[in-house]
Amino acid sequence: MTDKTPWYKDAIFIELNTRAFKDSDGDGWGDLPGLTSKLDYLKALGVDAIWLLPIMPSPLRDDGYDVSDFSNIFPAYGTMDDFKTLMIEAHKRELKIIVEIIPNHTSDQHPWFQASRDPNHPEHQKYRDFYVWSDTDKKYEDARIIFLDTEKSNWAFDEKRGQYFWHRFFSSQPDLNYDNPEVQQAMLDTVKFWIDAGADGLRIDAPPYLFEREGTNCENLPETHQFLKRMRKFVDEYKADTLLVSEANQWPEDVIEYFGNGDEMHMNFHFPLMPRLFMALAKGDRSPIEEILARTPVLPEGCQWGSFLRCHDELTLEMVTEEERQWMWETYAPNKAMRINLGIRRRLAPLMENDSRKILLMHSMLLTMIGSPFLYYGDEIGMGDNIALLDRNGVRTPMQWDNSPNAGFSEASADKLYSPLIDNPVYGYTKINVAAQEADPSSLLNRIRHLIAVRKQHPLLGRGDFEWKSFSFETKAVASYQRTYEDKRIVILNNLRDTPVSGWIPETADKFVDILTGNVIHPGDYTLQPYGFVWLLPVD
Ligand code: NOJ
Q1: Is residue 376 in contact with ligand 1, taking CB distance under 6 Å?
Q2: Residue segments in the chain with a per-residue pLDDT below the cut of 50
Q3: Annotation says 247 is catalytic
């Protein structure tokens, strides 16, 4: 193994919402000191990096993705000093912190927008062209609407200015005008601000939409890539090992552009792979994964996929066909209230019908198939969701630490919590919580910790090449593949079915050791348990 491998290729990430994690001051909202007090938990889980959902001031119309000040902390989360303390404590534990940057838009409460919309504002001249204004709402008609359930148009009329402004997301989130060099500079200044504050990486929200051009769908435009390359160049020159992870929710052939020639984003999430893991499991057939990996280009040097099962948003079905989307909805979201936009607003455990064999199998694929894995807070203990809450809030409820009042999340009275806790007989916090699972060696938490620990002993799982292998005559029932790096290889078998599957170990070797259990396995007939999986290291 070479020393030159960038840190993010070996890293395991967790995504969490500061608001949802731990409240230190009893106001019912999680905060940065609360998160700092739980770093040991995250370290023990085995993650290397923590991606914080937006922490900047915001009216929270889109949970912080509507920023009203790019260089400060949302007051209920704490102060810049609290952020610095978090950084110091995280770094002491060799944990990295990834901060969310939202370049495409701001809140309509942002002072830039307030000045831009109001001709009588003292700074109107300076900010007049910071946003995309138009006398008509008939421009850029080929651009799709993303928040289909709430928005009817990408234009909204502003009374003060007497013009329409462009917005790809909620109408309370006007898009910035990247044709204005001052906007570009302001965003680079934001990047610099968070690097100066100590961030080890930045998650770049919604990059495909930075520019608009008539006659296009206003996604993935050459100008957008040019700006992202400029951002990368700045980062390379300013603090070279800062990770840029972009959220381009696109097909593989479009996403590849976000890596440039290794001179754009270091990492991008593999959105099309994610729903196909769920599809393959429900069908007991690996074909959907095969199809998408066959379409997945080789990455330039130094780049990496980010892989994930669930996140703070709906399980997006944008990157599947219409037919696949219907099938996914019928299979995983039979109740219409579980659907939002083009996706499914449920957490992992309920999607897996609370079957720990399936939850673990999905983690086995997440941790061994491709790229660097991103966990979503709470999924490691099998937290549930609450589809009675609006928007995507049902998957953003407070972390369940123990069975005490408010799940150990907050000392506030229950009516002060930013969100109700999950409190039902199956997923409620008296049943599903960290303390109970820490005390039980066979809990989901401890088994996921074990999977993570084993993955970390074998960096080839983050770095290696991927190749499908056959297992049994019913090859499609088993997601069997080999990862190879330098002179090492590991063969992984995941049984996608609820029945045992027998077959042959798909490589010649005198014997294999299952690195998860230490069991020695000889080539020949072998039976995988229902939803069983093994990670096999050849021993010659
Ligand atoms: C993607 C984020 O993940 C989502 O939560 C947000 O609503 C949109 N970008 C708009 O910023």
Answers
A1: no
A2: 1-2
A3: yes
**Tokens (6 digits) for 444:** 């989901």
β-pair type (267-269, 520-521) = unpaired
Contact 105, 190 (CB under 8 A): no
Pocket test of ligand 1: the residue of 68, 312, 313 to mutate, having most ligand atoms within 8 Å of its CB, is 313
- C-alpha–C-alpha distance, residues 497 and 533, integer Å: 11
How far is it, in rounded angstroms, from Cα 376 to Cα 366? 12
Q: Is 62 in the pocket of ligand 1 (CB under 6 A)?
A: yes
Given 48, 205, 219, 385, which residue is catalytic? 205
In angstroms, the CA 168 to CA 221 distance is 15
C-alpha 63 to ligand 1 mean position (Å) = 9
* 244 alpha carbon – ligand 1 mean position (Å): 17
Q: What is the pLDDT of residues 71-124, one digit of tens each?
A: 999 999 999 999 999 999 999 999 999 999 999 999 999 999 999 999 999 999
Whether ligand 1 lies within 6 angstroms of the CB of 169 is answered as: yes
Q: Pick the catalytic residue from 62, 175, 247, 391.
A: 247
Please name the residue whose Cα sits nearest to atom 2 of ligand 1. Answer: 205
DSSP state of 105: B
Residue owning the nearest CA to atom 11 of ligand 1: 65
Q: What is the 3-state secondary structure (H, E, C) of 466-477?
A: EEECCCCCCHHH
| Kind and range of the H or E run holding 373 | strand 372-376
Ligand 1 contact via 133 beta carbon (within 6 Å): no
d(CA 419, CA 398): 7
- Which among 113, 105, 115, 119 is positioned nearest to 162, based on CA atoms? 119
Rg (CA), the chain: 23
Q: CA 83 → CA 18, 185, 197, 390, distances in Å? A: 11, 24, 8, 29
What's the pLDDT tens digit per position in 439-470? 999 999 999 999 999 999 999 999 999 999 98
314 lines ligand 1 (CB under 6 A): no
Residues 422 and 456: beta-carbon distance below 8 Å: no
Residue 353 annotated among the catalytic residues of the structure:
no
Report whether residue 65 contacts ligand 1, using a CB cutoff of 6 Å.
yes
Which residues, other chains included, contact 280 with Cβ-Cβ below 8 Å and sequence gap of 6+? Answer: 286, 287, 288, 289, 479, 496
Which SS3 state, helix, strand or coil, does residue 370 take? coil
Q: What is the pLDDT of residue 474?
A: 75
Contact between 317 and 263 under an 8 Å Cβ cutoff? The reply is no
Could you please report the per-residue DSSP string of 209-241? GS---TTS-SSS-HHHHHHHHHHHHHHHHH-TT
